[in-house]
Amino acid sequence: MKPETAAKKLGILLDATPEEFREGVVTRDELAKLQADPPEWLETLRREGPHPRTVVAAKLGISNSGLARGGVTEPLTSAEIKSLLEAPPQWLVQERATQAAVRQEKIRVADRDKERAARWAAEGRTSGGGGGGAGV
């Protein structure tokens, strides 16, 4: 696979990897070995960064879109992420609140759907299709 794909699967920023990783091809076996027994450079990169957007967003507890709204366009190191979490700017506070609301809504919808499914099962109905329809 391409180095970009392997870096994404490893959760690391391609530009921060060693040159031999960026210029080579990574086999599935090599990827499995990197995941199972990461070399020092990979452990350091995962621990200290710089981190790709998806990792930064996850560590901050916000979405990738929230990063963009907050003006974060560059990869961040673990120290920079820690600094943001220790003294969060207003945009981060707002984005974390938004993300929490989204999670709560997903839970509410999932609970509602479970209740509906249980009610339908008790009534002997199925959740698929149907309904009174046209028929002419």
Secondary structure: elements and pairs:
Blueprint: H1 3-10, H2 19-23, H3 28-36, H4 40-48, H5 53-60, H6 64-69, H7 78-86, H8 90-123
Protein architecture, described:
- By secondary structure, the chain is mainly α.
- Helix content is 65%, strand content 0%.
- The model has no long low-confidence stretch (mean pLDDT 91).
As residue ranges, the low-confidence spans are none
Mean pLDDT: 91
Distance between the termini: 55 Å
Percentage beta strand: under 5%
Please tell me how large the radius of gyration is.
Answer: 22 Å
In helices, the fraction of residues equals 55-70%
Number of extended strands: 0
Please tell me what the overall shape is.
Answer: flat
Please summarize the sheet with the most strands.
Answer: none
- SSE run: HHHHHHHH
Q: Strand pairing plus helix content: what structural class?
A: mainly alpha
* Number of distinct helices: 8
Summarize the structure.
This protein is mainly alpha-helical. Helices cover 65% and strands 0% of the residues.
Give a quick set of tags describing it.
single chain; mainly alpha; 8 helices
